[in-house]
Amino acid sequence: MSTGRVIVVGMDGSPRGDAALRWALEIGAHAGDTVRAILVRPRDTLLPGTSFAIQPHGRVPEAGYSLDAHVRDLGVETAATVETQQVHGDPATELVTASADADLLVLGTHRGGALSDLVLGSVGRECVRYSRCPVLVITPEAANRLAPA
């Protein structure tokens, strides 16, 4: 008896992360699969030479944010099993680590001008380079185009 696939989705509480999760639930996953939504809260890191500056790691949901509630509130129906996980650490490192037990890693990205289209965010870039499974990077526009009617 074969087990279903595991699809890991990097979440940050943004519309880009939501689009990636919707794609995974509506298109990527089937009955028997597991979709694992992972929110990585970065550790606060002091910048060299300062005692107060925090190194930014992109968008971080506000205190009190519940990934479970957020996923539930998206209201996407799926035959897959949905799991949520919140961890602390470097977002790229944690997602690459999670990719070791996954069949697919799904990340959302923005659509911008010509320059931003050429530059993948640092987390996305590291995941594409070092992931141990295939990586799908999808914009909200592309996710909407591929959504079931």
From TrEMBL:
Domain UspA intervals: 5-138
Pfam families on file: Usp (PF00582)
Superkingdom of this protein's organism: Bacteria
Family (UniProt): Belongs to the universal stress protein A family.
Protein name: Universal stress protein
Taxonomy of the source species: Bacteria, Bacillati, Actinomycetota, Actinomycetes, Pseudonocardiales
